[in-house]
Design goal:
2 domains
Length: 271
């Protein structure tokens, strides 16, 4: 090593006033020269070194954002809310892929195209309900205890996750329905799905969300069995007339949720 940093270079490097080329040259020299590293360190305030080290630790220790969290951030969701939303198991890609696999088997198993469509219509409304039931609650949400212990409104988190799960499920199921079925029939499950999710959110006012979801799924399956036993035609509950019933149920649940004091904080943005 034939040269060392003089006081002017040392001070300029510490203050960040050197040009790009000179700063790069100084940094290359510091990598090989312990004497100059010591003289630079002596000029840097201890508080600045501590803050730099804290920044390095935070960058290393910070968890890598998932694809869901990054996507939510790009559409304008606040970082803290994106992290809470992304923690829901039913918003993970493994869960969404399992939907495709299960519904693919439903559609491919029967030899008759009509039975394929029927199986899809009967089971498709349950997918968003199951996703919402697994989105928040004791035993299913890995962040449940943390969110319960913070002042963040539980109702807001529940509704945000329910909305996110519903959008994700519809985005997966609608194209899959057109692959497995034909005509307007692939869309026959949408209103029943919205109504069942709404009933689940209403029931969550008094029950844990997973329990409410299980109750809604069980009740729906009982209705399906009763219709089959009485009419021998399950398509009745997806007909145009009955779609109005599903629509009325969905609207009624939406009115209840938006007017309920327990959910009112969910519609106010937190700071």
């Amino acid at each position: 090593m034939t040269w060392h940093l003089d006081s002017a270079l040392t001070q300029g490097y510490v203050e960040g006033s050197l040009s790009g080329a000179r700063a790069a040259s100084v940094e290359a020299h510091l990598l090989a020269c312990e004497q100059c590293r010591e003289s630079v360190a002596a000029e840097v305030p201890a508080t600045r070194l501590a803050s730099v080290w804290v920044g390095v630790q935070n960058a290393v220790d910070a968890p890598r954002a998932s694809w869901v969290e990054r996507l939510l951030g790009r559409i304008g969701v606040q970082p803290e809310e994106a992290r809470l939303l992304a923690a829901a198991p039913s918003l993970r890609i493994s869960w969404l892929l399992s939907i495709c696999v299960v519904m693919g088997f439903v559609g491919a198993a029967p030899l008759s195209p009509d039975r394929s469509t029927l199986g899809f219509l009967v089971l498709a409304p349950l997918i968003p309900v199951l996703g919402v039931a697994c989105a928040y609650g004791r035993g299913v949400d890995p962040t449940y205890e943390m969110t319960r212990a913070t002042p963040y409104p539980a109702g807001r988190l529940l509704l945000l996750r329910a909305a996110a799960v519903l959008v994700a499920s519809i985005a997966v199921m609608v194209p899959l329905g057109f692959v497995l079925s034909r005509g307007w029939q692939p869309l026959g499950w949408l209103l029943p799905s919205l109504a069942l999710v709404g009933v689940t959110l209403v029931a969550a006012r008094w029950l844990e969300l997973p329990v409410a979801g299980a109750a809604v799924v069980g009740s729906y399956l009982l209705v399906v069995v009763a219709v089959v036993a009485d009419r021998q035609d399950i398509t009745w509950i997806f007909s145009g007339t009955f779609q109005l019933v599903w629509l009325a149920a969905a609207v009624g649940c939406a009115v209840f949720v938006t007017s309920s004091p327990a959910y009112r904080a969910a519609f106010r943005r937190t700071s």
